[in-house]
Amino acid sequence: MTQFTSIKFAQYSKPTARSQVVFAGEELNFAAEAEGVMGSASETVARAAKTADFNGKKSAIMHLLAPQGMDAERLIVAGLGKIEELKDRDWVNLGGEVAGKLLALKAEDAEVTFPSAATAQQAADFAQGALLRGYKFDTYRTVKKEADGDKACSLTLKVQDAGAAELSWAEAEAVAQGTLLARRLVDEPANTLGPVEFAAKAQQLSELGVEVEILDEDKMQELGMNALLAVGQGSVRPSRLAVMKWNGGKEGEAPIAFVGKGVVFDTGGISLKPGAGMEDMKGDMGGAAAVIGLMKALAGRKAAVNAVCVLGLVENMPDGNAIRPGDIVKTMSGQTVEILNTDAEGRLVLGDALWYTQERFSPKFMIDLATLTGACMVALGGHRAGVFSEDDDLAAKICAAGETTAEKMWRLPLGDEYDKMIDTPNADMRNTGGNRWGGASTAAVYLQRHTNETKWAHIDIAGVAMGSKKTAISQGWASGFGVRALNRMIKEHFEG
């Protein structure tokens, strides 16, 4: 859920909400719009700022209770620093920080008055940050302690041109809603979100104009997706492949494609994971969650692009029918793979899904997202995702979009030395590198063998999709990582 009952825009007007938010520039410089809100309380604010050593530095926040001279319960002053130096992500983060303060104070209504120097897009970015900060996963809490009781807040953003801000907000909100969908899916427990239920979530996007097709196990068997099916054969819940198409670009133009790993729960299979922390493996579908969230964002903002999103949805369980270490299966590509470790299952799912995507849709490029390897977390921690690609331009576009949106990524290597590590005398390849070294890269080259020379990039989000570092706009367990960055990349480079 989001803790904001509404977020709307309005022209400048007399303050009416119980909580008022204004902005201060560097050295406590207030725009005329802020001065108009504070009125005779301006001197009180100046004295309080001196006592609190608040000078309008970027992201600093000062809170005054019942300021004398204002008909309001509280005033929040948010620092902008030098407004001309603020980047898009700064406005998003500022929205999250202000929203966090309002929610902590249990404010029921608030008005945020922007300086006239702020653009409509900046106000929309601020609103996006607020909406994202308001996310809270409490679906299954039925008994709440009174002290934990949440009060939803209605937020009104006052700007110079409300119409322009609303237009910008329509797009920014669509991206935020895609991110929130990804978060909700990652947070959802596996007992309520199996492959079939996940596929149903994809089907719901048809309401936005997305064409959705769900492939069942019989159809996948017919197509030869034996590696994907092998991962799910130990589960009583059947596997699915969800295919979503958004046709917002030129008719007949090749689509761009995104593929997501959707292991709804990963026990490791016969190669059973340790029990400690296994509950987190409900989030092993973070790649699929990001991909469906991206599709929701594109459709929600009516992106001018043709896009295909494919989700490989399985559950990896260790029953009597599960695959075993040493088993050999044939992938959809016709290549055979020897299973050395059943806990290296995500690449088996993605390999077949990637081959299917390139064969059916002949896309301009494919990008897959997956919570794929602990090795990537060892390399990058919980701060960045790993990007693998032999296409310098595509990798650069992905990483640049990540920097812009603060969904940071770092390019890691492919190459023959890693590719040789997955050779085996018993089959065309094996599903691990044979030891613990270079595990993120050996997983990536396995996927590369299933791209059929289509332009491709792999994003390993193991360290950032769940349990990642808390930020101004993400305070829960699931981050929704990847939706905003990839949407930004598409908007800047592939629309129109």
Automatic annotation (TrEMBL):
GO terms for molecular function: manganese ion binding; metalloaminopeptidase activity. Mn(2+) 1 binds at residues 266, 343, 345. Its cofactor is Mn(2+). The active site is at residues 273, 347. It catalyses: Release of an N-terminal amino acid, Xaa-|-Yaa-, in which Xaa is preferably Leu, but may be other amino acids including Pro although not Arg or Lys, and Yaa may be Pro. Amino acid amides and methyl esters are also readily hydrolyzed, but rates on arylamides are exceedingly low; Release of an N-terminal amino acid, preferentially leucine, but not glutamic or aspartic acids. GO terms for biological process: proteolysis. Coiled coil: none annotated. It is found in: Cytoplasm. Its EC number is 3.4.11.1, 3.4.11.10. Residues 341-348 form the Cytosol aminopeptidase domain. Mn(2+) 2 binds at residues 261, 266, 284, 345. GO terms for cellular component: cytoplasm. Binds 2 manganese ions per subunit. Keywords: Aminopeptidase, Cytoplasm, Hydrolase, Manganese, Metal-binding, Protease. Presumably involved in the processing and regular turnover of intracellular proteins. Catalyzes the removal of unsubstituted N-terminal amino acids from various peptides. Belongs to the peptidase M17 family. This is Probable cytosol aminopeptidase. It comes from Pseudovibrio axinellae. The lineage of its organism: Bacteria, Pseudomonadati, Pseudomonadota, Alphaproteobacteria, Hyphomicrobiales.
